[in-house]
Write a structure and sequence with these properties.
Blueprint: E1 6-14, E2 20-24, E3 27-31, E4 39-48, E5 51-61, H1 87-103, E6 127-134, E7 140-146, E8 149-155, H2 164-180, E9 194-201, E10 208-214, H3 220-232, E11 238-243, E12 255-260, E13 265-269, E14 272-276, H4 286-300, E15 303-309, H5 315-320, E16 324-331, H6 334-346, E17 352-356, H7 359-368, E18 375-378, H8 387-396, E19 400-405, H9 408-420, E20 423-431, E21 441-448, H10 449-453
Parallel strand pairs: 3-5, 10-11, 15-16, 15-18, 16-17, 18-19
Antiparallel strand pairs: 1-2, 1-4, 2-3, 4-5, 6-7, 6-9, 7-8, 9-10, 11-12, 13-14, 19-21, 20-21
Length: 454
């Protein structure tokens, strides 16, 4: 086989990114847009790390029926990937994908509880990050990345994941920038002004924050742009400019300027209020986050001392504090910890302590101090637990662990490591936080084997 060949394949699984996986002999074929059960005619387009990648030419048989995508950008955008699947079918595929991934751990895993569906499959995101770029004629663009082309931007007409007002903000900013002759930042030349537009909105409070990330500020044309946008979109509660002069293509910078509002918005979730600042981490689907947190709280039950690693702005910590003797929340980002402290004060919660630091360092310090906990909650990034963090977690020797994961493949690897330390999985509950994508949260409860036999 070689690129350019036309072959027929049957998709048997999904890889860690949600692409269809087929086998021809012992050769793996990745097929974008395919799901298990699809039998397809495909064309091989490239070979990478021993795997072939292919594109669909014709369906001979569908594992799940396809529907007309809601979004006109579907297939071109790097965001939504499953709009062709009915939402009920997306849930079935995710449930099986998680079961298959956890089976790779080689552990005895209990039957997964039914996946919890999102209350809405569209317009659920509370944060979207849009990029500025240039077309072939050097015209300014504002939108999303083309799938597989992270240096290509397309003009976004409408996104169906965030709020409708967000679409209006994108159009307003793009039109004003073009009228004023503002340029997009060029990664190669390191010239230009506009870098990112970040829109956040409170689903329960309807408060809206807009953060414009630029390479030059103060800047008269940027001020004119902001004045025009706020006049056209009066719903904007908070407006900021972030100055980012570095070369890294990220939506953070050295200094923030508050143009309108208090510099943060408020969101309500599970009966608590949270301050959301420009760089705060908060679950992107807050309505579904209430269901995720409910699963964690029910698994935790009434408990003594709790350690909440990767606590973000303290949402899980503060909810656990209602049933716990005390909670210690740990997060790498100093800004998030400051938000967590403010959130505790806002909600009148006094049995939570928050400290900033890397998990692998904090675990070691707690072991050295001989701190004891009855429960540890971990909610690491997609890469899973750092090997030093995993070792420190095992050394703390707590009776129970609740692991919240957004990547079942790295979760499976970490569960294997925890099994070596004497932990057994006693419950698994998927929660769909990200409709229209292959991503899903999984909440796992683990107990020390000796605790189960006592």
């Amino acid at each position: 086989m070689k690129p350019g060949n036309h072959i027929e394949v049957e998709v048997v699984a999904l890889d860690s990114k949600g692409d269809g996986l087929a086998l021809v002999g012992e050769r793996e074929i990745l097929v974008r847009g395919a799901v298990p059960g699809d039998r397809l005619a495909v064309r091989l387009i490239k070979k990478r790390k021993g795997r072939f990648e292919a594109v669909i030419e014709e369906y001979h048989e569908m594992g799940y029926q396809r529907q007309e995508p809601l979004c006109t950008h579907f297939g071109h955008c790097g965001g939504c990937r499953w709009q062709e699947l009915a939402y009920g079918d997306q849930l079935k595929v995710k449930q099986q994908m998680i079961a298959d991934a956890l089976a790779l751990s080689g552990l005895e895993i209990p039957i997964l509880e039914p996946i919890i569906a999102s209350p809405t499959p569209y317009f659920y995101r509370n944060k979207m990050e849009f990029s500025f770029g240039c077309d072939r004629d050097e015209g300014l663009q504002l939108g999303m990345h083309v799938r597989g082309r992270y240096n290509w931007i397309f003009d976004l007409e409408e996104c169906h994941l965030q709020s409708q007002v967000s679409n209006r903000i994108v159009e307003s900013v793009r039109s004003a920038a073009r009228e004023l002759g503002l340029s997009a930042y060029d990664l190669k030349k390191h010239e230009g002004v506009l870098r990112f537009l970040v829109v956040r909105d409170g689903k329960q409070t309807e408060q809206i924050m807009v953060n414009l990330v630029v390479a030059s500020y103060p800047n008269e044309k940027v001020d004119l742009l902001l004045a025009q946008v706020t006049e056209e979109i009066p719903e904007i509660d908070v407006l900021l400019v972030t100055l980012h002069t570095g070369k890294a293509q990220v939506a953070i910078g050295e200094q923030e300027y508050v143009i309108k509002g208090a510099g943060h918005i408020v969101e309500k979730c599970a009966g608590l209020e949270f301050d959301i600042s420009p760089q705060s981490f908060f679950q992107t689907n807050p309505l579904q986050a209430e269901r995720l947190y409910k699963v964690v709280i029910e698994m935790a039950g009434n408990v003594g001392k709790v350690l909440d690693m990767y606590c973000g702005t303290g949402s899980i910590s503060l909810l656990l504090a209602r049933k716990a003797e005390s909670v210690l929340g740990v997060e790498l980002a100093v800004g998030a910890i400051e938000d967590a402290k403010l959130n505790a004060k806002r909600n009148g919660i006094e049995n939570c302590e928050f400290i900033a630091g890397a998990a692998e360092d904090i675990f070691g310090g707690l072991v050295a101090q001989e701190r004891r906990f009855d429960l540890i909650v971990v909610d690491p990034p997609r890469v899973g637990l750092h090997k030093k963090a995993l070792a420190g977690l095992c050394m703390l020797d707590v009776p129970r662990i609740i692991y919240v994961s957004c990547n079942p493949h790295t979760l499976a690897a970490d569960l294997s490591g925890l099994a070596v330390a004497g932990y057994r999985v006693v419950g698994v509950r998927p929660v769909d936080m990200f409709p229209q994508t292959p991503h899903c949260e999984v909440v796992v409860e683990l107990c020390k084997v000796e605790c189960l036999t006592n």
